[in-house]
Structures are given as C-alpha cells and as structure tokens.
Amino acid sequence: MSEETLVETPPPVRQWPAIDLTGTDFDPVLAELMREGPVTRIRLPNGEGWAWLVTRHDDVRMVANDPRFGREAVIGSPVTRLAPHFIPDRGAVGFLDPPDHTRLRRAVAAAFTAKGVERVRDKARGILDELVDELLEAGPPADLTAAVLSPFPIAVICELMGVPVADRHEMHSWTQLILSSAHGKEVSERAKRDMSAYFADLIGLRSNSAAEDVTSLLGAAVGRGEVTLEEAVGLAVLLQIGGEAVTNNSGQMFYLLLSRPELAERLCREPELRPRAIDELLRYIPHRNAVGLSRIALQDVEIKGVRIRAGDAVYVSYLAANRDPEVFPDPETIDFSRSPNPHLAFGFGPHYCPGGQLARLESELLVDALLDRVPGLRPAVPPDEVPFKKGALIRGPEALPVTW
After folding, report:
1. Of 240, 232, 219, which is closest to residue 156 (Cα–Cα)?
2. What's the rounded Cα separation, in Å, for the pair 269 and 362?
3. Which of 11, 19, 114, 150 is most exposed by smallest CB count within 10 Å?
4. How far apart are CA 396 and CA 253, in angstroms?
5. How far is CA 374 from CA 140, 258, 274, 276, 362, in A?
6. Strand locations in 66-122, DSSP E?
7. How far is C-alpha 191 from the geometric centre of its chain's CA atoms?
8. Prediction pTM value
9. What pairs with residue 288 in β-bridges?
C-alpha cells in the first residue's frame, strides 16, 4: 500500500461500556463500530488509554496469526480492558508468544487432539445420560442450566483435567468468581490465587504419573524440565476456566433452539444436519461481552489503509468477524445449510482455543441427548423473561426454565 493511500487522520475514540445484554442480542456498540469501518478505536471501562479494534474476518485472522502483534508486551502495560481484574500474570500462556507459547501448549497437546478428546467421549456420554435421567425423573418444569447445562461441562473438563470428583464443586465456584466482574477485583483475584494453589499441589503430586489427563501431562512436563511449575499452573487455570465456558455457550445455544422452535424441530426431523447446525450456532452466538485479550503491535503495520504504530494496543473481535457479510452471506440469518462456514468462534492462530474439539463434542452430545430423549422440550417462560448473567465476561443465561 502506498503512502498516499494511508489514512493519516485516525478515527475517533469510541467509548465501549460493559453492557449486560440479554438473549442473543448482538452488542449494539459493536454493530456501530463495524459500520464505522474495518479499523476503529475504542476505550473500554477499565485500564488506560485507547486501543485499535479490528472487525473484518480477513483482518482478524491476520492480526491473530501475525508475529508482528504480540501478547507478552501487554504485561505491565495499562491497556484499556473490559474487566478490572484482567491483569495478565507473567508466564501465563494467554500472554506468551512463540516459541514459549508453542512449548507450553505442546505439553498438553495430547489431551486435546481428536484422539485425546475421543478418550473422554464415552465417559462424557455416561455423565450426560445420568443428568438427563435425573431431569426426566424429577419431571417438569425444570431449570435446564442447573440440571444439565452447568454440571455437564464442569464434570467433563474436570475429567479431562484430572480433578477428583470431590473437588469439582469448589472448582466451579472459583471459576464463576474469576469469570465475573460483578464481585469486584479482589474477590476475583482471590479465587484465581486459590485455584492456582490447588493446581500447584495437584500437578506436583502427578509428576510421576503416566496418566493422560492434563494435570498428569503437566506434572510429567515439569518433571522433565520442559515447563516450569508456574507455567504449568497458569495453563491449567486457563484450561479449567475455558472448559466451563461451554455452560454459557450451550445455554445460549438452547435458548436459541427453544425460543425459535422451528430450529429445534428441524434438527429433530433431520438429525444428520446437527454437526453443521452446531457450527452455525457457534458462528451466530455472541458468546462474550465486548472483546477478550489485547495484543501490542511490535512494529508499524498497515491494515486497510490505517497505520498501526509500534506499541499500540490492538483488539480483534471474533464476534464481528463471524458476522462479516463478505464471508457469511446474510450473516444475521441462522442457516443450517451454510457451507463453507469458516467461523472464528474458537479464535485463530497460535492462541486458537485448545478446547475447541472438546466443546464441539459436548455440544453434539447435548443436542443429541436433549432433542432425542426429551421430546417436546420447550421454554417454560417467554424468551424475554429468561434471566441472563450480570457482569459476566462470557454471556449466558443464569437459568433456562423449560418444560416438556
């Protein structure tokens, strides 16, 4: 791109408040930013200054995969951010760049390959069958979140991580406090410290284990000197928290399917559509509030005629990328026949969500179990009366009242 085509006057800085949105409503602030241009500037409720926001599918993929944008440089920088407690820890995998990031993820890669995820399929299906049995035995009405959508992913991620059954309730409580900005920074940070201390002990106990769960793999890697205990703990915390995000994603997924009964009815009639439908729902669901973690430009970079200076903070919006009309025709429509569907629900590049295959597996099992075993499943209240979480970084219903 020539110097003459560069936009020398930067776009205005837009305030982006932390809005508690209900249902699957798309963030109106993000929608406005998308209309304003492919590259805009934002100020979030916490931190300092402003940051660039990139919203087009191709630009989001580029920034997420380009070594000219780094995560480590965010550490120690008061970057504008969504939550007051989203202050990065040194050595945390979310703020590492290759090759350290690659080295750390390699330690647990075996658990998240297709083979590793398949290892927990039968166990996950058994857990889910028991939960649905209990749901049916108790009878309607019920809170689908409390009965199935919350305990299922908690049990599955704990199974994959190697967290004993007796500790799972406490693990869930810590995760909810970490993922919420409603309780304040100190409460969230205390929960994070408690979870970190727990995993430090568990990983230490697993240093000689030959098991295939995540804490055993991390313990073995620490024992071989491939990763430090601090790095292993940071990765374990991130994976545990990410595993519970399925609760909110599946909550939104079933909120959509049940509040638009024609969607659920079609999947009952045409079960062969379900894998493709799940991908489309993952594309469509606004699974988080605002944006996640920022990057720092390590050198000057041009994006769509806008010069990003070295040292500038940059955010990408996967939600916006998933609604890019140049990639997804009629993006506001849920189209179960959409193909191809290169959505970015699990991110892109080196920081692509390692649990993406696991989340897909859980979604497939949930759709099969609930649509096939609970015929007539429908909302027990009007859609606008379903309570959604307040102050949550990951969006989802607080409860999903259903009947059948």
Report:
1. 240
2. 21
3. 114
4. 9
5. 11, 12, 16, 21, 17
6. 69-70
7. 19
8. 0.91
9. 394
User: By three-state DSSP, how is residue 48 classified?
Assistant: strand
Q: Which residue has the tokens 């409720």?
A: 45
93 burial type by CB count under 10 A (0-12 exposed, 13-18 middle, 19+ buried): buried
pLDDT digit string, tens, across residues 380-389: 999 999 999 9
Residue 399 pLDDT > 90:
yes
Split at pLDDT 50, 70, 90, the class of 165 is: very high
Tokens of 54: 């990139």
Tokens, residue 188: 């969230």
Residues in the chain: 404
**All domains of the chain, ordered by start, with CATH?**
3-403 (1.10.630.10)
Task: Choose among 208, 65, 111, 148: nearest CA to 368.
Answer: 148
Q: Where are the alpha helices (DSSP H) in 8-55?
A: 28-36
* Distance set, CA 246 to CA 120, 191, 283 (Å): 16, 20, 14
Q: Is 189 exposed, middle or buried (0-12, 13-18, 19+ CB in 10 A)?
A: middle
Evaluate whether 104 touches 83 at the Cβ level (below 8 Å): no
Q: How far is CA 308 from CA 9, 53, 184, 237, 379, in A?
A: 12, 11, 33, 32, 47
Pairing of strands 313-316, 51-54: parallel
Apex 379 CA angle, 247 and 137, nearest 5: 75
Apex 84 CA angle, 190 and 16, nearest 5 = 155
Q: CA 404, CA 402: separation in Å to the nearest integer?
A: 7
pLDDT tens digits along 355-381: 999 999 999 999 999 999 999 999 999
Cβ contact 270:325 at 8 Å: no
What gap in Å lies between CA 19 and CA 288, rounded to an integer? 11
